[in-house]
Design brief:
Length: 230
């Protein structure tokens, strides 16, 4: 093709055109690989949350026990009456209360006796929602209106709900409500990380520990052995 300048322009040789097309296509494919199903950029920088990549596709597996949203605790609370045998002499020096009506120093006070003996004590609800506990500290609620357990703020946690762990993250309880010895284990709600060795208790077997718990020194979840207190 000729132009008024007198210079002649020839088409690119076929191999050059083919190379340019291949490079453009490769760039397009690379960009596509970096996009999630919703079109958001998903950079694999090793910080993926939701569990460990152990080669079985569990990196983004949803934990069986996690906290997608904050919950409001039920106001009603069950009672655990003091045994009649402990009321015979009107209480001893170890008896701080005889009935729920004696527990008036807090919310939803309940009087209960120790499993053995007649020593009694009062317990109270310390929260009714996460907003009573502070940032990244969840309120652990009882399971039903007839449950005797009190509600309390789970201090020491690093998350309260899943969204606190970033996009696609999960916030799970570690040894919450479990009394036992577990060196290095955290008791609270913690985010799952890409370095986790487990997601659920079912990932753990005898010998490596049967409980999936948050390991404070490593900042990740791992199988641990919990020795219940006597």
């Amino acid at each position: 093709m000729r132009f008024s300048t007198g210079r002649t322009y020839r088409p690119l040789p076929a191999p050059t055109v083919l190379l340019a097309a291949l490079l453009a296509n490769a760039a397009c494919e690379q960009r596509t690989m970096l996009l999630g199903h919703d079109g958001a950029v998903a950079v694999d920088d090793g910080a993926t949350t939701g569990g460990a990549d152990r080669g079985d596709g569990s990196r983004n597996r949803v934990p069986q026990n996690h906290r997608p949203v904050a919950e409001a605790c039920v106001a009603e609370r069950g009672t655990l009456p003091v045994p009649v045998s402990c009321l015979a002499d009107g209480g001893s020096q170890f008896t701080l209360c005889l009935s729920d009506s004696d527990c008036r120093a807090g919310s939803n006070g309940r009087c209960s006796a120790m499993p053995t003996g007649c020593a009694t004590n009062c317990s109270y609800d310390f929260c009714s929602a996460d907003s009573d506990c502070g940032v990244r500290v969840p309120c652990h609620c009882r399971t039903s209106p007839t449950d005797f357990s009190n509600s309390w703020c789970v201090s020491g946690s690093n998350c309260a709900i899943d969204s606190g762990c970033g996009p696609g993250g999960y916030c799970s309880p570690s040894l919450v409500g479990i009394l036992g010895d577990c060196p290095g284990c955290g008791s609270g709600y913690f985010c799952h990380t890409a370095s986790d060795k487990c997601v659920d208790d079912s990932d753990c077997t005898a010998g490596s520990g049967t409980t999936c718990a948050y390991d404070v020194p490593s900042g990740s979840w791992t199988c641990a052995e919990v020795t219940p207190y006597p």
